Amino acid sequence: MASTGDLAAVTRFALQRGASIRLVGDDRQLASVAAGGVLRDIKTAVGAVTLTELIRFRDQAEGGASLALRTGDTAAIGFYLDQDRVHVGDLSTVTNHAYTAWTADRDADLDTIMLAPTRDLVTGLNVRARDDRLVKLLQDGQDLGQQVALVDGSAASEGDLVITRRNNRQLRMTASDWVKNGDRWTVSAVHNNGSLDVVHTHTGRRIRLPRDYAAAHVQLGYATTVHGAQGVTADTCHTVSTGDESRQQLYVALTRGRDGNHLYLVTAMDGDEHSVITPAATHPRTAVNVLEQVLARDEAQISATTARQQLADPHTQLATADARYRDSLGHAAAHIHGPGWVPRLEAAVDQVVPGITDSPAWPTLRGHLALLAADGQDPVAAFTTALHAREIDTAADIAAVLDWRLDPTHTRSHTSHHTPAPLPWLPGIPQRLADDPYWGQYLTARAGQVEVNAGEVRAAAQAYTVATAPGWARLLLSEKHRELRGDLAVFRAAHAVPDDDTRPTGKTQLAAADRRTQKDLDTRISEAIDTSYRTAWTPLAVQVGLRPHADPHCPSWSSSSRPCPGPAPTPPPCCAPRPPKHPCRTSTRPPPCGGGLPGTPPPPSSPRTPGPHLPTRCARPGFPS
Question: Which helix (H) or strand (E) holds 101?
Fold first, then answer.
C-alpha cells in the first residue's frame, strides 16, 4: 500500500546510496489512501515481469477464478456459485452464518478468519468469538487468567487470537523477520505490566510485545476488515459483504484462504416497515446481480499521468463527442423556435397523451420533435401520427416507443435539407440550424470533433497487430477486414463498449438508427467470418433456460464450445431446466450462447466440463467447474 510520494522518497534515498530497486506488488489489490497508480504507469512505460503461477490455493480451479476476479471478469462468479461459496440473506442472517461456518472450521483445527465491511461489525464478531471461547473455558473449569485492554475496546487473554497493526523492525524474531502489520498471533501469556507473549500462527516464532505496542497496535484477530486482511493468509476465509464493495475489495476478500473462500452476501432487506416500498424491496437483487455490480465497481487508483492520457485518448473522446453532438442538436433546435416553444409543445402533447412529459425518455423525444420542426415539419402532427400507428398501452416508456416510431427511415432528418451526418447513426444538421449565425458554427465544430475522433479510432484499429488487437478484433486482422475492423472500432468507441466485452458490437442498442447500424455490422461480420458452428448451441442454451445473445461471455463460450466434427448437437430430453441448487441462483448464470464473435480464449470458468447433459466438445484447457 505504498503511495506514490512515499515510493518516490524511498527510491530516491536508495538510489543515492547505490542500491538497486525492485518493485513487487499487485496493482489490482487495495491501494494506499494517498495518491497512487504509479506501478501501472511503470508497467505501461517500461514493462514488467508478471507472475502467472499461483501457489496459494490448493485447488487450481480457485486460482483461475481469482485471476478472473482480479480483472473484473464476471465469468468468475460461476466458480463460486458452483462450489457453493456464495450464501445470501439479510445482514443479521449472513453474519450469523459466517460466524457459524467460521466456528466449525476452527473446531476442525483450521486456521480461519472472518472479514466484515465495517469496524463495528468486526468488533462485534471478535467480541462474540472471544466470549464463546471464555464460556467454554468456564464450562471446563479452567481459569480465565489475566487480560489486557486493546485499542479496539476489547480485551485479550491467554489463548486469544490477535493481529498486529503496525510494522516495527525493532521487534525482531530473527535477523530477517520482525513484527509486521497484518501478522496474526496466539497469546501465550499476559504479564502484569501489560506486555504480551505471542506465537506467530504460521511460523511458530515467539516474541514479547511491549505494553505500549500492545495497547496501541494490537487487536483481536478472529475477524478484521478487508483492508486489514490484505497480506493475511489462512486456511479458510469467511467474508460478510453488503454488496457495496469495490472489485479490489472483493478480490482481496476471496483470495485469503488456501482451502476455501466463502462470501456471505446481503441480498435481502432487514424487515424494517419503512423499507418495504423501496426499490431494493420491490425489485430485489440476486447474488449474481450484486456480484456483477461489485466487479464493475473499479476503484483502482490512477495517477495524474494516466488520467491525462485517458482524457486524451480518442476512444474516450469519441463517446463524449457523440453524446455532446446529439444533445447540442436537440437543444439548438428547441432554442431557435423561441423561449415559449418548448412549453407550448409540452402542453400540446400532454393533451394527447397525459403525463408523457414525465416519461424518462421525454427529453430525447422532445429533441427529436424539435429537429423535425427545424426541418419544416409539424411536430405535433408527427407525434399524433406515430401515436396512432398501433397500440401503445403496453409500452413501459411511451416516449421511448414514440421516439422509435418517429424514425421509420432510421435517421433523425426526414428531408434532404440537412448537412451530412458525421457518423451513420447520427442525424445531420438541419439546414436552418446550419445557417443560423449563433448555432451553425458551433454545431459544425461539434460534428467536426466527432469526425476527427472517429478518424483517429479508425486509424488505430486498422493498424492492429496480433500483439495489440483486443479480443473482439483478433479474427479480423487480415487486410481484407481492414475496413470492417475500423467501422467496428468506431461503433464500439462511440457507444463506450469496453474492450473486454467480446461481443462484436456490444449490447443491443435501443435507438433506431444505432440499432440499424449495429445490425448491419453484425451482418458484415457473419459474412466475413464463418461462425455457423455457434448456432448449433442456441437450441440447447434456450432449452436449459439460458439467454443466448444476451451475455458478454457468449463469444468466448461459443468459441470454446465448438462442436467436434459431425452433425449439429441435438438437445437431449434430459436437458430440461433444473431447479436452482442454491437460493442465490435466482437469475441466469453467465450463459452459453450461439451468437457473437469469438475473440480471446475463454475465461477460466466459462467452459463447462462435458457431462451427461451436454454433447461432447473438442477438448480445450480450462479449469473444471
Answer: helix 91-107
DSSP 508-566: PP-SHHHHHHHHHHHHHHHHHS--HHHHTTHHHHHHTT--TTSSTTHHHHHHHTPBPSS
Q: Which of 450, 455, 456, 459 is nearest to 421 (CA)?
A: 450
**Is a pLDDT exceeding 90 seen at residue 252?**
yes
Q: How far apart are CA 127 and CA 133, in angstroms?
A: 10
pLDDT (mean) for 71-76: 88
Q: Are 595 and 546 in contact (CB under 8 A)?
A: no
CB distance 614 to 546 below 8 Å: no
pLDDT for 552 beyond 90: no
CA 481 from centroid of its chain's CA atoms? 31
Neighbour-count burial of 273, counting CB atoms closer than 10 A to its CB (0-12 exposed, 13-18 middle, 19+ buried)? exposed
Provide the whole-model pTM.
0.73
**Cβ within 8 Å of residue 208, ≥6 positions away:** 195, 196, 197, 198
How far apart are the C-alpha atoms of 428 and 420, rounded to whole Å?
Answer: 5
Closest CA relative to residue 272, chosen from 141, 399, 92: 92
What pLDDT digit, counting tens, does each position of 568-599 carry? 444 444 333 333 343 333 333 333 333 333 33
